[in-house]
Amino acid sequence: MSMPPVVVARDLVKKFEDLTAVDHIDFIIERGEIFGFLGPNGAGKSTAIRMIQCVSPVTSGKLEVLGMDVTEQPREIKRRVGVAPQDNNLDPDFSVLQNLTSYARYFDIPRAEATRRAENLLEFMQLTEKQDTKIEQLSGGMKRRLIVARALINDPDLLILDEPTTGLDPQARHLIWERIRQLRKEDKTIILTTHYMDEAEQLCDRLVIMERGKFLVEGAPKELIQKVVGECVMEVIELDDGAAETYLRNTGLQVERSADRLYVYSEECRTIEQEFRHRHPNASSVVRPATLEDVFLKLTGRRLRE
Q1: What is the pLDDT along the chain (306 residues), one digit of tens a residue?
Q2: Element at 254 (helix H, strand E)
Q3: CB-count exposure of residue 13 (10 Å: 0-12, 13-18, 19+)
Q4: C-alpha radius of gyration, the chain, whole number
């Protein structure tokens, strides 16, 4: 017997006066999957997640979380959702352990049970040795791990991770990745937002890329790479005279340019590169596998968003 979806959105809209932040989107998040919301700044992903958290009211459409309507049962939904926000909003007056046990009060968890859960979560996030440490003495990676632990204190049916590894070094990032994978093995449903495309490609079962409140694409990372970009990318450092770009565009290939590079998307990059180097021996080029970052930049553009 299949389990019902954890989140169902139909024709979901969120408006702020004249701005439509979320523009008639539909999606389903199944139990036990990691679902990613990606997009440039201002795309609407944070707004969509705030509606799922029941902290921002829906303008129109239907949104159900854990089988409940967000407009009718927000308190019940909040009790079953865990949220790790992007900001480090830990209480500096409390120790590591106290940050967890005090937060447990919001869920009416008895003190002894709260302590037991907190100690288990600190072990899970490799923070046991820091349980009596004040927050200001923690590294950035430790703070992020503690915020994830705090989001798990109520044993949520849905875990929302908002930029969980921003600003962390590679070791700290990968430790959090390992813990996210472990939670998925335990059948946790996870919503992930991230600006790191490699993170989304590594962790997400499915994802959406948003822009201006709408979904540009939805699917598994590998499927989207194949569909939008192809197997590989040829990068060319463009010469000043523009001859390389002119040649490549005249062949009918998919070509994009940034300030100093050309990107050629194809299934036959090696063959294309051989012919290109024959005609432009002084140009520098490299062929590499296509990535989710190529998908993101191809769909949303390479211009910086503020």
Answers
A1: 568 999 999 999 999 988 999 999 999 999 999 999 999 888 899 999 999 999 999 999 999 999 999 999 999 999 999 999 988 899 999 999 999 999 999 999 999 999 999 999 999 999 999 999 999 999 999 999 999 999 999 999 999 999 999 888 898 899 999 999 999 999 999 999 998 999 999 999 999 999 999 999 999 999 999 999 988 999 988 666 778 888 888 888 888 888 778 888 888 888 888 998 888 888 888 999 999 999 998 898 765 454
A2: strand 254-257
A3: middle
A4: 23
In Å, what is the CA distance from 85 to each residue of 143, 153, 182, 199, 300?
12, 14, 20, 17, 25
Fold classified for 231-289: Alpha-Beta Plaits (3.30.70)
H runs (alpha helix) in the chain: 45-52, 74-79, 96-104, 111-124, 140-151, 170-185, 197-203, 221-228, 243-250, 269-279, 292-300
Q: Where in the chain is the domain with CATH 3.30.70.120?
A: 231-289
Q: Give me the amino acid identity at 36.
A: G
Structure token pair of residue 182 = 């472990």
What is the CATH architecture of 7-220?
Answer: 3-Layer(aba) Sandwich (3.40)
**Cα separation, 243 vs 276, whole angstroms:** 11
> Rounded to 5 degrees, what are φ and ψ at 116?
-60, -45
Token duo for residue 29: 């998040």
| Residues 158, 109: Cα–Cα separation, whole Å | 18
